[in-house]
Fold this sequence. Notes:
The complex is a heterodimer.
Chain A: H1 5-10, H2 26-36, E1 43-48, H3 52-57, E2 68-71, H4 77-93, E3 101-108, H5 109-114, H6 117-126, E4 131-136, H7 176-181, E5 187-191, H8 198-209, E6 214-219, H9 223-226, H10 233-242, E7 249-252, E8 255-258, H11 269-272, H12 287-309
Parallel strand pairs in A: 1-2, 1-3, 3-4, 4-6, 5-6
Antiparallel strand pairs in A: 5-7, 7-8
Chain B: E1 3-7, H1 9-20, E2 24-27, H2 35-45, E3 52-55, H3 59-72, E4 76-80, H4 82-87, H5 89-97, E5 103-108, H6 122-126, E6 133-136, H7 140-154, E7 163-168, E8 177-181, H8 184-191, E9 208-209, H9 218-247, E10 254-257, E11 264-269, H10 272-285, E12 290-295, E13 297-299, H11 303-310, E14 315-320, H12 331-339, E15 348-353, H13 363-379, E16 386-388
Helix pairs in contact in B: 1-2, 1-7, 3-5, 7-9, 10-13, 11-12
Amino acid sequence: MSYNLKEEVQKSERFSGGHRMCAGCGAPVAVRSVLRALKPEDKAVVCSATSCLEVSTFLYPYTAWKDSFIHSAFENAAATISGVETAYNVLKKRGKIDENYKFIAFGGDGGTYDIGFQSLSGAMERGHDMVYVCYDNEAYMNTGIQRSSSTPHFSDTTTSPAGKVIPGKKQVKKDLTKVIAAHNVPYVAQTTFIGNFKDISEKAHKAIYTPGPAFLNIMAPCPRGWRYPSEDLMEITKAAVETCVWPLFEVIDGKWILNYTPKKKLPVEEYLKKQGRFSHMFKKGNEWMIEAYQAEIDRKWEDLLFNCSRG
Amino acid sequence: MGIRERLSGNEAIAIAFKQINPDVMGAFPITPSTEIPQYFSQYVANGEVDTEFIAVESEHSAMSTCIGASAAGARAVTATSSAGLALMWELLSVAASARLPITLACVNRALTGPININCDHSDSMGARDTGWIQLYSENNQEAYDNMLQAMRIGENSKVMLPVMVCQDGFITSHAIENIELLETEKVKDFVGEYRPENYLLKKENPVSVGAYATAAYYIEAKRAQAQAMINAKEVILEVAAEFEKVTGRKYGFFEEYMMEDAEEAIVVIGSTAGTAKEAVRIMREEGKKVGLIKIRVLRPFPMKELAAALSHVKSVAVMDKAESFSACGGPLFAEVRSALYDCKTRPLMINYIYGLGGRDVTVENIQYAFESLKEIKTSGEAGETYRYLGVRE
Lengths: 311, 393
Ligand SMILES: Cc1ncc(C[n+]2csc(CCOP(=O)(O)OP(=O)(O)O)c2C)c(N)n1
Ligand code: SF4
Ligand SMILES: [Mg+2]
C-alpha cells in the first residue's frame, strides 16, 4: 500500500481540534498521526496518562476524543489499557461484543520513562495486544518544565536549571526505546514528524496492526519548554534527525532496522542552537558541553548502526 | 439446603469468585491475601472459570487493570492486603469517582512501620474515605456471604460504587471453619449479570472516562458520588433481605448481640466479635447486663441506626483495631461518638485501641473492658477516653 499524505488527511479525524494545547505543540500532531493510521472501520479505545495532552483534551464537559477514551492517573496508562484490552478479550469470548477494537495508550515522557515505567514494562511483558505511544517532549511540561529521565544532557529546566556551578541537567537522556526493545515485544519504533509524515504514519500502522504489544517513541517538541518559535516545529524535528540526535529506526521481532541515514550527518550544534533550553551551552568557555553532547550522540549512533548491521 | 464445607476465609472468597465467574481478575500476591489469586488462577488453569486473570506486576497495576476493565464494561475483581492496598490508594479514589463497581477482597493486615504480616485494620481504615463501600466480616461465612452481596450492591444503578469486602488476616483468612456454601446456580441467579449503562466498548456510544474537572464541576461530581453512598444504605438492606430469602442468613448494617437490656456495650469490627460474644455470654451468665455491636457496614456509615441502638446504654467502649494518630482515639471511636451526639441521652464513651499488628485479644481482655465500663457507669465519669488494651506500657 503506497503512502499518500493527501489521502491520509482526507480520512475523518478521530481527534478533533479546539483542544487547549499550545499552538505549535508536537503532542497533538503525534496523536493525530497515530489515530489516522487506524482503519476507518476499526473501533478504538484510547487511554492517556495525566499530562499536557490529557488535561488539555478532556476538560469536562468537552472531549476531543471521538473514540472511547479513558484517563485514570499519571503512572498507569499501560496498566489501564491492559485492563480494557483484557475486558475486550473476555467480552468477545463470551459473545457480548463482536466489533474489532484496537487499544492505544498515550503518555508523555514523564508518564513513560519515569513514573509509568513499571506499568509499561509490565504490560509489554504480559503481551497485551496494544500500542503504547510515548510523545516525548523531554520534560514534565504540564507541571512547568521539570526535568525527566528523558531530558537531554545539559538542558535547562526548572528542576535542572543552568546555574553558576551546575550547567543544566547533569545526566544523559535515558534510551527508553532500546529498553523496551529489550522486552522482546514484536514491534518497537522511534519516529517523529518528517517530510510528508510517511515514517510516522507507516510506523503507527504497523504498531497498531502487529498482534501483541507495540511501542512507539515519538519526538514531540514543546515550543514552550524547548524555547523555540512555535512555527519551527518541523525544522526542529528535521534537525534532530539530520544530526542523529533522534534517529528513525524500528525493531521488528528483535531485528533492528535503520529507516533513515542522513546524507551528511550534521553537527549537534545545528539542533542545539535553535533552542533556548541549550543556549548556555553556546557561551564562551562552555565548548566542552557541546563536545560532550556530540560524543554521546556519536556513541549512540554507532551503537545503533551496529545493532542494525547485525540484520 | 446449601453445601456444607470446611474452608478458610481465603478459599471461601476464591470459591465465591469461582461461582460468580467474573470477567476479569487483576491481582498481585501479598500475605495474607495471596491464596485468593493462587486458588483463582488454578480455577482458570483448570477451565473451571473463563475469567481472564491478569498477573500484574504490582497492586497499583492490579487496581489500574480493574479500572480499565470495569470502565470497558467488564465485571472486575481483585484481592489484596496492607501495603498492597496502600499502593492502590490513589486509584481507589479514581475507581470510586469514575463510578466503577469493582469488587476488592481485602484481607486485613497491619500497615508497614514496623513491617508486620498480621491482622489489624489500619489498611482498610486508611482507605475508608476513598469512596468505597466497606463491608466487614466476622468469619469465613460472613466473608463469603458479603462477597455474594457485594456486586449486587455496587452495580445497582442508584449506587455504581466499588465495594471492599474485608476479613481479618490469618484469624479468618487462614483458619479452616465450617461454612455453608450456596449452590453455584443459585449464586449465579442471585448475583446476576453485570449490565452497565455506559462503557468504553459500547459500540453505539463511545464514552470518555476520567475527565479533568475544574472548580466549576468538581464539587458537583463529588456531590453525586456522595449521593450514591447515601443511596447505598437502602440498597444494602434490600440486597440483604433478598439474600436472607435465599440462604436464611440475616444481614444488616451491624449485628446487635444481647443489646436489648444492655447497660454496658462494646462496639467492634471483625473477628474480635467472636471472642467478645463469648465474653458477653459468660458475663450474662453472671447476671451482668452487657451487650455488643458488631459493625458490618462502615461505608456508608449507619449513623442514625447506631445512635438508636446505643442511646439507651449507660456506657460504651468502642474498640479500634487501628490507630488514627489523632492523639485522642481511633477512627471508629470518632465516628461512633459523633453518631451519638444528637441523642437526648447518651452513654459515656471510651475508646480502646487493641490488637494492633496481630496482638491476641482474649476473652479476659474483653471482660476487662466491660469492667472498666462498669466503673465508668458507677462513677458517672468517663475519665481518660483514649485507652489501649493489652499493651505493655
Ligand atoms: C502521582 C502523580 N504525581 C505527580 C503528578 C503531577 N503531574 C501531572 S502531569 C505531570 C508531568 C507530565 O509530564 P509528561 O508525562 O512528560 O507529560 P507532558 O506534560 O510533558 O506532556 C506531573 C508531574 C500527578 N498527576 N500524579
Ligand atoms: S506546554 Fe508544551 S507540551 Fe504542553 S501544550 Fe504547551 S507546547 Fe504542548
Ligand atoms: Mg513531557
